[in-house]
Amino acid sequence: MSETKNFSASAFTALGTPRDAVALPEATFDGTVNMPVMHQAVKAMLANQRQGTHATKTRRWVTGGNQKPWKQKGTGRARQGSTRAPHWVGGGTVFGPQPRGYEQKVPRQIKALARKSAFNARARENAVIVIDRFAYEAPKTAQLVQLLARLEVTHKKALILTDGVKSNVYLSGRNIPNVVVMPYADASTYDLLWSDVVLVEAGAIGHDLAPVAEKAVEKVKVKKPAAKKAAKAEKVEAEAPKARKAVAKKAAPKAAAKKAAAKKAAPKAAAKKPAAKKAAPKKKGK
Fold this sequence. Notes:
This protein is α/β, with parallel strands linked by helices.
């Protein structure tokens, strides 16, 4: 997909007040989306994160097995030379994984094209939002949570790209689930494709938006996602039969003991009844 297209993104202040839409720079946002290149970049990044320290022991490295388990002839069993041969339990592993490197190198031009394609993919989905300026005097998680709530992206994976390193913004979003804060220049193809929505500071894409006079804004209640509530309800429903079975199992021994006691008591009661019948005729004889 390489159709030339101009994109615009909705703009907001750091408190969530709407502003006029902003045109995204054509140098990056030109509509190019190259899927194979993005796949190559993401695959290389995930591969480069592997340490490759997996190791299995061949028969050479397994302890023991130096002595022949039994003599060659006369036992009737198959000849064996070591208890650490691969076909023995506790023996060595054949063709198991050994330490190796998983590094994949990607040319700079391909990296740049993949990153550009990822930005365009998010722009096509209208998932790019411009924030005029992050001017946090101190780390404040509640302030960033309120911004996400006003933008209605609380329960989405949000990637916040700042104009340079801003530690206060990073510390504000560090403890929020599904929120990643980093400088615009550090965003990789993987980060962009991981996110559902991208919040970009205006200065990072070459825009200098004038400050807007804002009034005090009321706090927005952050609702829990409905999916979590439904999952909890499903868990409760799934656990209910198990709880009933557990109660039934606990009650079963008691019921069995009662039945056994009743069976023992039944012969005694039967033995007493005939004795009472024999005593009745004696009274008549008198």
